[in-house]
Write a structure and sequence with these properties.
The protein is of the alpha+beta class and 326 residues long. It contains eight helices and seven strands, in the order αβββααββββααααα. The chain folds into two domains: 255 residues, CorA soluble domain-like (Beta Polymerase, domain 2, 2-Layer Sandwich); 41 residues. 23% of the residues are buried.
Length: 326
Protein backbone atom coordinates (compact mmCIF):
# COMPACT_ATOMS: atom_id res chain seq x y z
CA UNK A 1 0.00 0.00 0.00
CA UNK A 2 2.85 2.40 0.74
CA UNK A 3 4.19 2.16 -2.80
CA UNK A 4 0.70 2.70 -4.25
CA UNK A 5 0.33 5.76 -2.06
CA UNK A 6 3.67 7.13 -3.25
CA UNK A 7 2.82 6.42 -6.89
CA UNK A 8 -0.44 8.34 -6.52
CA UNK A 9 1.02 11.32 -4.64
CA UNK A 10 2.84 14.31 -6.10
CA UNK A 11 4.07 17.58 -4.64
CA UNK A 12 4.50 20.97 -6.25
CA UNK A 13 6.73 23.34 -4.31
CA UNK A 14 6.51 26.90 -5.57
CA UNK A 15 7.27 30.50 -4.80
CA UNK A 16 7.53 33.69 -6.82
CA UNK A 17 10.97 32.67 -8.10
CA UNK A 18 10.99 28.87 -7.90
CA UNK A 19 8.95 25.90 -9.12
CA UNK A 20 9.58 22.23 -8.46
CA UNK A 21 7.38 19.18 -9.06
CA UNK A 22 8.46 15.88 -7.53
CA UNK A 23 7.28 12.39 -6.66
CA UNK A 24 8.30 10.50 -3.55
CA UNK A 25 10.35 7.37 -2.97
CA UNK A 26 9.54 7.12 0.75
CA UNK A 27 7.02 8.55 3.20
CA UNK A 28 9.82 10.24 5.10
CA UNK A 29 10.43 12.51 2.09
CA UNK A 30 7.02 14.16 2.49
CA UNK A 31 7.96 17.34 4.32
CA UNK A 32 5.10 19.70 5.19
CA UNK A 33 7.13 22.00 7.40
CA UNK A 34 6.95 25.71 6.70
CA UNK A 35 9.67 27.35 4.65
CA UNK A 36 10.21 31.06 4.36
CA UNK A 37 8.57 31.96 1.03
CA UNK A 38 7.49 28.65 -0.52
CA UNK A 39 4.07 27.01 -0.72
CA UNK A 40 3.45 23.30 -1.24
CA UNK A 41 0.61 21.58 -3.05
CA UNK A 42 0.43 17.89 -2.30
CA UNK A 43 -2.09 15.87 -4.29
CA UNK A 44 -3.10 12.26 -3.57
CA UNK A 45 -5.43 10.10 -5.64
CA UNK A 46 -7.20 7.68 -3.29
CA UNK A 47 -8.76 7.95 0.17
CA UNK A 48 -8.03 4.39 1.31
CA UNK A 49 -4.45 4.98 2.50
CA UNK A 50 -5.26 5.37 6.20
CA UNK A 51 -1.91 4.01 7.48
CA UNK A 52 0.07 6.23 5.13
CA UNK A 53 -2.01 9.28 6.06
CA UNK A 54 -1.34 8.56 9.72
CA UNK A 55 2.42 8.29 9.14
CA UNK A 56 2.59 11.57 7.22
CA UNK A 57 0.54 13.38 9.89
CA UNK A 58 2.64 12.10 12.77
CA UNK A 59 6.01 12.67 11.06
CA UNK A 60 5.06 16.28 10.24
CA UNK A 61 3.60 17.00 13.70
CA UNK A 62 0.20 17.92 12.30
CA UNK A 63 -2.90 17.97 14.50
CA UNK A 64 -3.48 14.28 15.32
CA UNK A 65 -7.28 14.79 15.13
CA UNK A 66 -6.72 14.63 11.38
CA UNK A 67 -6.09 10.90 11.79
CA UNK A 68 -9.59 10.32 13.12
CA UNK A 69 -11.14 12.51 10.45
CA UNK A 70 -9.34 10.70 7.65
CA UNK A 71 -10.40 7.31 9.00
CA UNK A 72 -14.06 8.11 8.31
CA UNK A 73 -15.27 6.45 5.10
CA UNK A 74 -18.03 8.95 4.29
CA UNK A 75 -17.88 12.69 4.84
CA UNK A 76 -20.62 15.25 4.62
CA UNK A 77 -19.64 18.79 3.68
CA UNK A 78 -17.33 19.89 6.48
CA UNK A 79 -15.05 22.80 7.33
CA UNK A 80 -13.26 22.10 10.61
CA UNK A 81 -10.71 24.45 12.18
CA UNK A 82 -7.82 22.57 13.78
CA UNK A 83 -4.47 23.67 15.16
CA UNK A 84 -3.38 26.18 12.52
CA UNK A 85 -5.10 23.96 9.92
CA UNK A 86 -8.36 23.67 8.03
CA UNK A 87 -9.95 20.31 7.26
CA UNK A 88 -12.39 20.64 4.34
CA UNK A 89 -14.47 17.91 2.69
CA UNK A 90 -17.03 18.03 -0.11
CA UNK A 91 -18.67 15.70 -2.62
CA UNK A 92 -17.99 16.77 -6.22
CA UNK A 93 -19.26 15.52 -9.57
CA UNK A 94 -17.10 13.60 -12.01
CA UNK A 95 -18.20 14.86 -15.41
CA UNK A 96 -15.72 13.17 -17.75
CA UNK A 97 -17.93 10.15 -18.49
CA UNK A 98 -21.33 9.84 -20.13
CA UNK A 99 -23.01 9.61 -16.74
CA UNK A 100 -22.54 11.94 -13.78
CA UNK A 101 -20.75 10.26 -10.89
CA UNK A 102 -19.53 11.77 -7.65
CA UNK A 103 -16.38 11.50 -5.57
CA UNK A 104 -15.09 12.61 -2.20
CA UNK A 105 -12.57 15.43 -2.07
CA UNK A 106 -10.62 16.35 1.05
CA UNK A 107 -8.48 19.45 1.52
CA UNK A 108 -6.07 19.99 4.40
CA UNK A 109 -5.04 23.63 4.34
CA UNK A 110 -2.44 25.59 6.27
CA UNK A 111 -0.89 28.97 5.40
CA UNK A 112 2.06 27.17 3.75
CA UNK A 113 0.64 24.02 2.17
CA UNK A 114 -2.48 22.50 0.70
CA UNK A 115 -2.97 18.75 0.66
CA UNK A 116 -5.74 17.69 -1.73
CA UNK A 117 -6.96 14.10 -1.46
CA UNK A 118 -9.23 12.84 -4.24
CA UNK A 119 -11.19 9.62 -4.23
CA UNK A 120 -10.65 8.92 -7.96
CA UNK A 121 -7.91 9.74 -10.49
CA UNK A 122 -8.46 12.70 -12.79
CA UNK A 123 -9.45 16.27 -12.01
CA UNK A 124 -10.07 19.71 -13.51
CA UNK A 125 -6.93 21.34 -12.14
CA UNK A 126 -4.44 21.03 -15.02
CA UNK A 127 -4.83 24.70 -15.89
CA UNK A 128 -3.76 25.56 -12.33
CA UNK A 129 -0.67 23.36 -12.67
CA UNK A 130 0.12 25.03 -16.00
CA UNK A 131 -0.16 28.46 -14.37
CA UNK A 132 2.17 27.41 -11.59
CA UNK A 133 4.71 25.92 -13.96
CA UNK A 134 4.57 28.80 -16.46
CA UNK A 135 4.42 31.49 -13.75
CA UNK A 136 1.20 32.86 -15.23
CA UNK A 137 -0.93 35.25 -13.23
CA UNK A 138 -0.38 35.84 -9.53
CA UNK A 139 -0.79 32.29 -8.21
CA UNK A 140 2.93 31.82 -7.39
CA UNK A 141 2.91 35.04 -5.42
CA UNK A 142 0.07 33.82 -3.23
CA UNK A 143 -0.23 31.26 -0.46
CA UNK A 144 -2.28 28.10 -0.01
CA UNK A 145 -5.54 29.97 0.63
CA UNK A 146 -5.45 31.40 -2.89
CA UNK A 147 -4.63 27.94 -4.28
CA UNK A 148 -7.73 26.55 -2.53
CA UNK A 149 -9.76 29.37 -4.07
CA UNK A 150 -8.49 28.44 -7.56
CA UNK A 151 -9.28 24.75 -7.02
CA UNK A 152 -12.85 25.51 -5.92
CA UNK A 153 -13.22 27.93 -8.83
CA UNK A 154 -12.04 25.19 -11.20
CA UNK A 155 -14.71 22.82 -9.85
CA UNK A 156 -17.43 25.46 -10.28
CA UNK A 157 -16.23 26.38 -13.80
CA UNK A 158 -16.34 22.70 -14.75
CA UNK A 159 -19.89 22.45 -13.39
CA UNK A 160 -20.96 25.50 -15.38
CA UNK A 161 -19.36 24.28 -18.62
CA UNK A 162 -20.81 20.78 -18.26
CA UNK A 163 -24.22 22.16 -17.29
CA UNK A 164 -24.22 24.50 -20.30
CA UNK A 165 -23.24 21.66 -22.66
CA UNK A 166 -25.93 19.33 -21.29
CA UNK A 167 -28.48 22.18 -21.32
CA UNK A 168 -27.79 22.81 -25.02
CA UNK A 169 -28.32 19.13 -25.85
CA UNK A 170 -31.44 19.04 -23.69
CA UNK A 171 -32.84 22.16 -25.36
CA UNK A 172 -32.61 20.54 -28.80
CA UNK A 173 -34.16 17.27 -27.59
CA UNK A 174 -36.88 18.82 -25.42
CA UNK A 175 -37.85 21.75 -27.63
CA UNK A 176 -41.35 23.03 -26.87
CA UNK A 177 -42.41 22.36 -30.48
CA UNK A 178 -41.45 18.69 -30.09
CA UNK A 179 -43.47 18.02 -26.95
CA UNK A 180 -45.35 14.74 -27.40
CA UNK A 181 -47.09 12.63 -24.78
CA UNK A 182 -44.96 9.59 -25.59
CA UNK A 183 -42.95 7.35 -23.22
CA UNK A 184 -39.76 8.34 -25.08
CA UNK A 185 -40.26 12.07 -24.55
CA UNK A 186 -41.27 11.59 -20.92
CA UNK A 187 -38.15 9.46 -20.37
CA UNK A 188 -35.94 12.23 -21.80
CA UNK A 189 -37.53 14.76 -19.43
CA UNK A 190 -37.05 12.51 -16.40
CA UNK A 191 -33.42 11.76 -17.36
CA UNK A 192 -32.69 15.49 -17.62
CA UNK A 193 -34.37 16.10 -14.25
CA UNK A 194 -32.11 13.50 -12.62
CA UNK A 195 -29.05 15.20 -14.14
CA UNK A 196 -30.20 18.54 -12.78
CA UNK A 197 -30.80 17.10 -9.32
CA UNK A 198 -27.22 15.75 -9.36
CA UNK A 199 -25.88 19.17 -10.41
CA UNK A 200 -27.97 20.94 -7.78
CA UNK A 201 -26.91 18.59 -4.99
CA UNK A 202 -23.23 19.07 -5.87
CA UNK A 203 -23.60 22.85 -6.25
CA UNK A 204 -25.39 23.17 -2.90
CA UNK A 205 -22.62 21.14 -1.26
CA UNK A 206 -20.03 23.53 -2.69
CA UNK A 207 -22.02 26.58 -1.62
CA UNK A 208 -22.36 25.23 1.93
CA UNK A 209 -18.62 24.64 2.03
CA UNK A 210 -17.89 28.16 0.78
CA UNK A 211 -20.28 29.69 3.34
CA UNK A 212 -18.45 27.82 6.10
CA UNK A 213 -15.07 28.90 4.72
CA UNK A 214 -16.17 32.53 4.86
CA UNK A 215 -16.66 32.19 8.62
CA UNK A 216 -13.30 30.66 9.57
CA UNK A 217 -10.74 32.64 11.46
CA UNK A 218 -7.27 31.16 11.18
CA UNK A 219 -3.96 32.99 11.10
CA UNK A 220 -2.42 33.17 7.64
CA UNK A 221 -5.61 32.11 5.78
CA UNK A 222 -7.45 34.91 3.99
CA UNK A 223 -11.18 34.33 3.42
CA UNK A 224 -11.74 37.31 1.10
CA UNK A 225 -11.41 35.16 -2.03
CA UNK A 226 -14.49 33.06 -1.43
CA UNK A 227 -17.26 35.66 -1.79
CA UNK A 228 -16.94 35.76 -5.57
CA UNK A 229 -17.20 32.01 -6.07
CA UNK A 230 -20.21 31.88 -3.74
CA UNK A 231 -22.01 34.17 -6.17
CA UNK A 232 -21.03 31.92 -9.09
CA UNK A 233 -22.44 28.93 -7.24
CA UNK A 234 -25.67 30.78 -6.42
CA UNK A 235 -26.07 31.71 -10.09
CA UNK A 236 -25.60 28.08 -11.14
CA UNK A 237 -28.21 26.92 -8.61
CA UNK A 238 -30.63 29.61 -9.86
CA UNK A 239 -30.17 28.43 -13.46
CA UNK A 240 -30.77 24.82 -12.41
CA UNK A 241 -33.93 25.77 -10.49
CA UNK A 242 -35.23 27.71 -13.50
CA UNK A 243 -34.69 24.75 -15.84
CA UNK A 244 -36.32 22.38 -13.32
CA UNK A 245 -39.39 24.62 -13.36
CA UNK A 246 -39.41 24.53 -17.17
CA UNK A 247 -39.21 20.73 -17.17
CA UNK A 248 -42.02 20.56 -14.62
CA UNK A 249 -44.12 22.76 -16.93
CA UNK A 250 -43.41 20.40 -19.83
CA UNK A 251 -44.45 17.40 -17.75
CA UNK A 252 -47.67 19.21 -16.80
CA UNK A 253 -48.25 20.06 -20.47
CA UNK A 254 -47.81 16.39 -21.39
CA UNK A 255 -50.42 15.41 -18.80
CA UNK A 256 -52.74 18.14 -20.11
CA UNK A 257 -52.37 16.88 -23.69
CA UNK A 258 -53.05 13.32 -22.57
CA UNK A 259 -56.08 14.46 -20.57
CA UNK A 260 -57.40 16.47 -23.52
CA UNK A 261 -57.01 13.51 -25.87
CA UNK A 262 -58.75 11.23 -23.39
CA UNK A 263 -61.59 13.74 -23.05
CA UNK A 264 -61.96 13.91 -26.85
CA UNK A 265 -62.14 10.12 -27.08
CA UNK A 266 -64.66 9.92 -24.23
CA UNK A 267 -66.77 12.71 -25.82
CA UNK A 268 -66.86 10.88 -29.15
CA UNK A 269 -67.80 7.61 -27.52
CA UNK A 270 -70.49 9.33 -25.44
CA UNK A 271 -72.05 11.01 -28.50
CA UNK A 272 -72.10 7.74 -30.40
CA UNK A 273 -73.62 6.00 -27.39
CA UNK A 274 -76.35 8.62 -27.01
CA UNK A 275 -77.21 8.33 -30.73
CA UNK A 276 -77.41 4.55 -30.78
CA UNK A 277 -79.13 4.00 -27.41
CA UNK A 278 -82.64 5.09 -28.68
CA UNK A 279 -82.05 3.16 -31.91
CA UNK A 280 -81.20 0.07 -29.92
CA UNK A 281 -84.28 0.67 -27.78
CA UNK A 282 -86.56 0.78 -30.82
CA UNK A 283 -84.89 -2.25 -32.37
CA UNK A 284 -85.26 -4.08 -29.06
CA UNK A 285 -88.99 -3.40 -28.84
CA UNK A 286 -89.72 -4.67 -32.35
CA UNK A 287 -87.34 -7.55 -31.92
CA UNK A 288 -89.46 -9.09 -29.15
CA UNK A 289 -91.20 -12.31 -30.06
CA UNK A 290 -94.77 -11.43 -29.08
CA UNK A 291 -97.48 -12.47 -31.51
CA UNK A 292 -99.77 -9.47 -31.07
CA UNK A 293 -97.56 -6.45 -31.73
CA UNK A 294 -99.89 -4.22 -33.81
CA UNK A 295 -97.26 -2.71 -36.11
CA UNK A 296 -95.86 -6.07 -37.21
CA UNK A 297 -98.67 -6.66 -39.71
CA UNK A 298 -98.80 -3.07 -40.96
CA UNK A 299 -97.75 -2.86 -44.61
CA UNK A 300 -95.40 0.11 -44.20
CA UNK A 301 -94.37 -0.49 -40.56
CA UNK A 302 -90.78 -1.38 -41.40
CA UNK A 303 -90.21 1.77 -43.42
CA UNK A 304 -91.93 3.95 -40.84
CA UNK A 305 -89.63 2.53 -38.13
CA UNK A 306 -86.54 3.22 -40.28
CA UNK A 307 -87.79 6.76 -40.80
CA UNK A 308 -88.29 7.25 -37.07
CA UNK A 309 -84.75 5.97 -36.48
CA UNK A 310 -83.34 8.42 -39.05
CA UNK A 311 -85.28 11.29 -37.47
CA UNK A 312 -84.02 10.34 -34.01
CA UNK A 313 -80.44 10.23 -35.30
CA UNK A 314 -80.61 13.61 -37.07
CA UNK A 315 -82.42 15.12 -34.09
CA UNK A 316 -79.67 14.01 -31.73
CA UNK A 317 -76.93 15.32 -34.05
CA UNK A 318 -78.73 18.67 -34.42
CA UNK A 319 -79.08 18.99 -30.65
CA UNK A 320 -75.37 18.23 -30.06
CA UNK A 321 -74.34 20.81 -32.64
CA UNK A 322 -76.64 23.39 -31.10
CA UNK A 323 -74.99 22.75 -27.74
CA UNK A 324 -71.56 22.92 -29.48
CA UNK A 325 -70.57 19.56 -28.09
CA UNK A 326 -68.69 18.82 -31.32
Amino acid sequence: MEQNFLDNTTIINYSDKNYEKTKFLALSQIDLSAHSNSTKWINTYGIEYQDEFKSVILENNLDDFLIKLLMEEEHATKVIVLENLLFVTVKVLKTEGKTLDDEQMIFIVSPNFLWSIQEKPGDYFNWIRERLEGHKGIVRKKKADYLLYLIIEAIIDNYQETYAKHAEISASQLNATLIKPTPEFTSLVETRKQELFSFKKAAIGLRDMIVKLEKVDIKGVDIKYFSEIKEQTNNLISNIDFELQELESKINLIFSIQGHRLNEVMKTLTILSVIFIPLTFLAGIYGMNFEHIPELKFKYGYFILLGVMVLVTFGAVWYFKRKKWF
